[in-house]
Design goal:
The protein is an all-alpha fold. It is built from 14 helices and 3 strands. The longest helix is centred in the middle third of the chain and has 37 residues. It is globular.
């Protein structure tokens, strides 16, 4: 037992440090500046690096360390107020950031000997042998489901906190209406039929779907960054996956997305919001898949780099981002339905 503890101690120590770093980054969310917001969105990164590079012990320790640190920081920030509130802050971090980061990075390094039914965490020694790694499609599917669940959980919690959905919507709309009015200013004229209260109501309704979709982008981006860091440091225990060729959703999700997008506007109250959250999360997932399609289909093209630059700039410009986003969603849906990438791969493979 002593030898085992000594063997696990370095990984646990790395996990503790990673958890503290994750908690500090998360704490920057209270700052209302753009750099602080960017750094706060990188809070899952240390946990993912610990998991990918140093194993499950380091990843699990990082989650526990981050939860404890978040609780301590929140307790100190509130000038040593309620311990219950501080503990709730730590648990919130665990369920909304810590565990998703740990789970997705754990899935990314699962592998098995070909023909074996059991998935195990890949070690550096095991990576030198022929192994089958968990498909990126499954990792992406889990990420989409987790982020949709996060959005639904937020909607349900807020509704229960204010007794009912309608009461929550009215009170939150009234609270942010002055902020919306200041944001619009006296010079900006709203379209006919839209007032400040209606705009505030729309912002409240859009909050949970935006959190769900944004969480998916954030987690996948952090997973990519963590993988690159682990790869550059020589700690990634698996070959780098072909992201452009493998990032996709199962076809059954097309049916879910179609139903959610079709019936969501006709539902009212909390059930309608839940359906919209699922539809928005899947829409963002298909946009990411569409971006992978663009990368893959442009391989070998002399215009690949300029076209990719146009796509990313189009997503960054406020005037055109919605058009490019919808185009990527359509590309992701069409590829899921008709397997354009698989067809290109099959056509490019040498014939016997």
């Amino acid at each position: 037992m002593k030898k085992r503890l000594q063997k696990l101690a370095p990984a646990a120590a790395i996990g503790i440090g990673a958890g503290i770093a994750a908690a500090v980054l998360c704490g920057l969310a209270s700052r209302t500046t753009v750099p602080a917001a960017i750094l706060a969105n990188l809070s899952p990164l240390p946990i993912m690096i610990a998991m990918l590079g140093y194993g499950a012990v380091a990843g699990a320790t990082a989650v526990a360390s981050a939860a404890l640190t978040v609780s301590v920081l929140f307790y100190a920030q509130e000038k040593f107020g309620s311990l219950d509130t501080a503990a709730l802050a730590g648990l919130t971090f665990v369920f909304f950031l810590g565990l998703p980061a740990f789970w997705l990075s754990l899935l990314s390094v699962l592998s098995r000997v070909k023909g074996s039914p059991n998935w195990v965490v890949t070690t550096r020694v095991g990576s030198f042998f022929a192994r089958e790694y968990l498909p990126l499609e499954r990792v992406f599917t889990y990420a989409t489901s987790i982020c949709a669940s996060i959005g639904v959980a937020i909607a349900i919690y807020v509704s229960s906190f204010f007794v009912s959905f309608d009461v929550a919507l009215e009170r939150l709309s009234a609270e942010i209406a002055p902020f919306v009015e200041r944001l619009i200013g006296a010079r900006m004229q709203l379209p006919a039929g839209i007032d400040v209260r209606g705009l505030a109501r729309a912002m409240v309704l859009a909050a949970a779907p935006m959190v769900a979709g944004g969480s998916l982008v954030m987690l996948m981006l952090n997973l990519w960054l963590a993988g690159r860091v682990a790869q550059l440091s020589g700690k990634l225990p698996r070959p780098w996956p072909d992201i452009a060729g493998e990032l996709r959703l199962p076809r059954i999700y097309l049916l879910v997305f179609g139903l959610a997008a079709a019936i969501g506007p006709y539902f009212g109250g909390l059930p309608g919001l839940i359906v919209i959250i699922v539809a928005v999360t899947l829409g963002v997932a298909y946009a990411l898949a569409g971006l992978a399609v663009a990368h893959y289909m442009l391989r070998g093209s002399s215009f690949r780099i300029p076209l990719l630059i146009v796509i990313y700039l189009g997503l960054a410009v406020p005037v055109t981002w919605l058009v490019f986003l919808l185009a990527l969603v359509v590309a992701g849906i069409l590829d899921t339905a008709f397997s354009f990438r698989d067809r290109k791969k099959k056509a490019a493979s040498p014939k016997p």
